[in-house]
Structures are given as C-alpha cells and as structure tokens.
Amino acid sequence: MEFPPPLLDAIPDNPYLLLTPGPLSTTKTVRAALLRDWCTWDRDYNDIIQRLRADLVGFATARAEEYTATLMQGSGTFCVESAVGSAVPRDGRLLVIANGAYGDRIAEMARVLGINLLVQDSGEVGPVDLALLDRNLAENPDITHLAVVHCETTTGMLNDIAAIGKIVKKHQKTYIVDAMSSFCGVPFDLAELGIDFMISSANKCIQGVPGFGFILARREALEACRGNARSLSLDLYGQWAAMENGGGKWRYTSPTHVVRAFCQAVEELKAEGPAARHIRYAKNQKRLVAGMAALGFRTLLAPENHSPIITAFLYPENCGFTFNEFYTHLKSRGFVIYPGKVSKADTFRIGNIGDVHIEDIERLLGEVSEFIMHNS
Ligand SMILES: *Cc1c(COP(=O)(O)O)cnc(C)c1O
C-alpha cells in the first residue's frame, strides 16, 4: 500500500527536546503521519494492523511462529493490567519482583484485581536477589506466574531477565515481562529467554506517539487465557481473538491516527536497525554519565546496573541546588528532564531515548555546565 509523502514543511518543530522516556521526542515524519483519517473496518487500515503485528513479533524473536502480537488501547499500564488480569487464572498465584515504582504498580494492579499475590521486594535500588527468587518459588508451589519489569524506569535499573527466566523456567512457571521502556532499545529474544508474555507501548523505544500498547505472547500461553479476564475491555484473549480472526480488526474503537504514526515509526526503526538504535541509546547514555560526572553529578545506581534508557542523578551537595531552577534553566534552553521517583534520595532523571542523538547530549551538557557556573 502507498502512503503519500507527508508535507514536512507544514509540521512545526518541537519547542524543546523531551529527555523523558515516553512520551518522547518523535521525528517530524512520525508526527506528519498523524494527519489523515482512517476507517476502522476498511482493508487499508486493517492491513496496517496485520503488518504491524507481524513486525512486532519479528522484532521480538527469531522464532516468530511461536508468538503472536495483540494491540491494546490505552497507555502502557492498561496493557500490563490486561496481560496480568488475563494470564493468571482464578486459582493461580502471582509472584511479583518489585524494585521500583513500575514493579510496585504490577503488585498494586494484582491487588485491585483480587489476584493471589506474593511480592519479592528488592527495595528501590537493589538488584533482584536470584537466590531468594529460587527459594520463593521452591517454598510456594502454588505460584503459577511471575512478573518482573525489565528496565525499571524509576531508576534506570536494568533487571537481568535472562537469569530470572532460567529460574522461572526451572520451576515451570509462566513468565511475564514488562519491557515497556526497553523493547527495541535493548536486544533480547522472547523465545530464548522463555518469556510467555511481554508488554510494551507505542511511545517508548519504537518512538511512536502515545495512545496504545501491545502484548507479545507465546501462542499456547495466550490460548490458555480464555475466560480468565477480570475485565471486559482489557480481556487480552478477547482482544487477540477479534484481531486474529477479524484480519486485524480491533474489538472497540482503535486510536487510528496513533496507529498510523506508529506504522511510520516502525518503518524508521527498520531503516535504522534495532541493533543500531541500541548502540545510539547506549552511546547517548554513556556520554551523558561521563559528561555529568565531569560536572560533579553522581548517579544513583552503580554503573553495572544502568540501562541505556534513562539515568537517575543525585542532587549535587552543598551548592544550593534546586530541581526547579535546574529544570527551568534547561527548559529555556530546549531540554525537558524528569523529576526523581525514589523516596530515599534526592534525584532527577534524564532519559536519552527517542529522536535524541549524541549532538543533543553534547548540547545538553553545555547547558548543564553553564547552569553550574552561574550557580556556584
Ligand atoms: C512507561 C512505563 C509503563 C507504562 O506507563 P504508562 O504511563 O501507563 O504508559 C510501565 N512500565 C514501565 C517500566 C514503564 O517505563
């Protein structure tokens, strides 16, 4: 199918770069792709959906025949809730590994849904204790499912989903991974890691605009979800069955413009290549940390726990630093950053995913340097 080239000159520049990991800065071509209307039951639109579903599986694993993609309306949280609320049966029990706000959120949704729950809490900055996980699974044979966040966006911590997966599979549990902020930014293969359900969204490393997310599932595991859901609109099996049997139809109104823009983002990801995108993000993050260190900023986490997605920095001490002044200065120079999200330390976060390149990081470091000079 053909898409006419968008009128790029008519698309305004963004007033500042978002150094926030979703929504993030998108390309002009992605934003231009928003500018037409679509019919949700027409072939033109449904063909886009089917191609997207196949592309997503292709990004996720070399064993494409074992997996299937379902798109779901809403933000990333809706998709995690859909997966958790549909995967765990009424007599099942979920172990959630939590080391940050997003792990805590999975535990919270399990409580709201009335799912029998065990939480393995590693604190806000602690890596996952694998020996404890092994023990928890051995001592609680009623656990059927395990959920963990890959990149804990609260701190930037990258959890070792390969090592966790080995233990989960040794105990023959169903493995759910929230890879919202890492999918297509950090390479991994679902089949290799034994992941049964993986969740991500349009507005993270694929660099689309917000409005929907997606769940990649091992076909067999998904087919076993029929009748499990605690919600009609978030019924993953129901959504999948409608899409699969309807040639790409969504059950309820889909975010058509957002989906079309996502399609453009996927083409741009293919053109860049997921491996090259990972390298771009990693270079951004390493340059950021090195440059900030030279200006006196320390990171919250030890370097070996960092993801290439987002970094939490501690406030510098004894210099009257305030986040508000820092934020306002950077915003006036074209950069928007994130406040911190941990309770035990004063931090701010800088993300480096999206249409963000090394020269943007260099420019940011120049502005941080200027701020430091005028405030010390
Ligand atoms: C962004 C994100 C989510 C989803 O957040 P929404 O605000 O619902 O889009 C979930 N988990 C992680 C790890 C995330 O980074």
Bound ligands, named by name, code or SMILES: pyridoxal-5'-phosphate
In this structure, how is the largest beta sheet organized? 7 strands, mixed
How far is the N terminus from the C terminus?
58 Å
Q: What is the overall shape?
A: globular
Q: Could you list the spans in which at least 5 consecutive residues all have pLDDT below 50?
A: none
Mean pLDDT across every amino acid position: 95
Percent of residues in helices comes to: 40-55%
SSE string, helices as H and strands as E: EHHEHEHEHEEEHEHEEHHHHEHEEEH
Q: What report would you give on this structure?
A:
The chain has 376 residues and is an alpha/beta fold. The protein has 13 helices and 14 strands. The strands form 4 sheets. It has a 7-stranded mixed sheet, sandwiched between helices. Strands 11-14-13 form a 3-stranded antiparallel sheet, with no helix packed on it. It has a two-stranded parallel sheet with strand order 1-12. Strand 8 (174-178), helix 7 (190-193) and strand 9 (197-201) form a beta-alpha-beta unit. Helix 2 packs across helix 10 (256-272), helix 5 runs parallel beside helix 6 (161-170) and helix 11 (274-294) runs parallel beside helix 13 (358-374). Pyridoxal-5'-phosphate (PLP) binds next to helix 3. The site of pyridoxal-5'-phosphate has 12 residues, from helix 3.
